[in-house]
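pasting for ref
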Amino acid sequence: MDLIFSYGGGWQSIAITLLIDQGKLRKPNRVIFADTGYEKETTMKYFYENVKPIFDRNKLELEIAPHDLATVDLYAKNGQFLVPAFTSGGLLRKFCSKEWKTRVINRYLRKQGYGIKYPIINWMGFSKDEFSRMKENEANWIKNEFPLIYDYPLTKIECRNLVIDSGLPSPFHSSCFFCPFQSDEEWLNLTLDDLHKAIKIEIEARENDPRKDLFFHKSRKHLNEVNFNENRKEPDLFTCNEGSCFT
């Protein structure tokens, strides 16, 4: 079976790339990145400046599964908002990763000819301290495997150390630029363009909400009113805990 590496752009994906380069993990047949349409500018900039040279010397190519393979965008067909925004009553359920990443990659792979008669192994970058995040793929012709749990076990912190010790600069956390799971440090690290786009999407989402009760920041303040420096602390490098962002 072909081995597919679902590249997420974060610490763990970069650690897997380094382990491939070092010969400690086998070389995948294909590497695929799901374009959510909302990825931070810093993620792809980091890839092209720092990770692509590693890909090139290993004759790997990053294939982009385009966002138009998603059947929904910010809203489900029933009008439900797919982003896990904060409300006065809690946090909305998260659908975005499954709709914009998992299913997009599955559809992309299907278009490449994979299926029941041509099954594949799919690497996902969860580390050994994220054992509970392991899930089977909803497509029965895709077998999810977790190299940082079984093949070359590393914790999240060990992945970070591997990246830094290799001489690569510290990457920013990979996520959508409006992701409510971001720390204040991560909000501060957004480009101004990404921050402005996040503010615009939050305003539009709140206007579409019957109760006007949607917020992208945990303080439940509007993004254009948040002082991100007020509670600034060491960033949580792995804030998305749903299990489908690949990391």
